[in-house]
Design brief:
- This protein has about 150 residues and is of the alpha/beta class.
- It has one domain (about 10-150): Rossmann fold (3-Layer(aba) Sandwich), CATH 3.40.50.
- The chain is about 50% helix and about 20% strand.
- The protein is globular, with a radius of gyration of 16 Å.
């Protein structure tokens, strides 16, 4: 069972420092239980994932010479992590969006020109994804308990 007031660590990977700073402020504001760890590269993210117990990942699609889909693949297939993953995109691209969803991204979010609005929407998305993830884990726990009890 998950602890009630446990801080949830979310990694935010984006080279756009202004967006990252604003998103961190918006998400952490009024959310004492959420800590945003801002990183600027896929490589730093993979290292952080190794050392930390993370509860979610927000990654921009454009990561220098790499892309967020590569990171998503490594997390879902290579590391077999099932934590919420939100892919950020600077522009709408249906083909990339479809690829991300096929790779099991929880959401694909198009960053709007209005920075404040984008950050507020992202804050609500994170809260919803964390709640969904917690609910799925609790259901999984109850199912395993029921199976164990029936097997006795």
């Amino acid at each position: 069972m998950m602890a009630v007031n446990k801080t949830k660590k979310i990694v935010l990977i984006d080279e756009d420092e202004e967006f990252s700073t604003q998103a961190k402020k918006a998400i952490e504001h009024d959310n004492n239980h959420i800590e945003i760890i801002v990183l600027d590269s896929k490589e730093n993210a993979l290292e952080k994932i190794k050392e930390s117990n993370l509860h979610g990942i927000i990654s921009n699609y454009n990561l220098g010479n790499r892309d967020g889909l590569e990171l998503l693949k490594k997390i879902r297939i290579g590391r077999q992590l099932n934590i919420p993953f939100i892919l950020l995109m600077d522009r709408v691209d249906s083909k990339t969006r479809l690829k991300a969803l096929k790779l099991d991204a929880n959401r694909v979010f198009h960053k709007k020109k209005n920075l404040e609005l984008s950050c507020q929407i992202l804050k609500e998305i994170i809260k919803q994804e964390l709640l969904d993830y917690k609910t799925k884990k609790e259901l999984e726990h109850h199912r395993k308990r029921e199976i164990h009890m029936v097997g006795l």
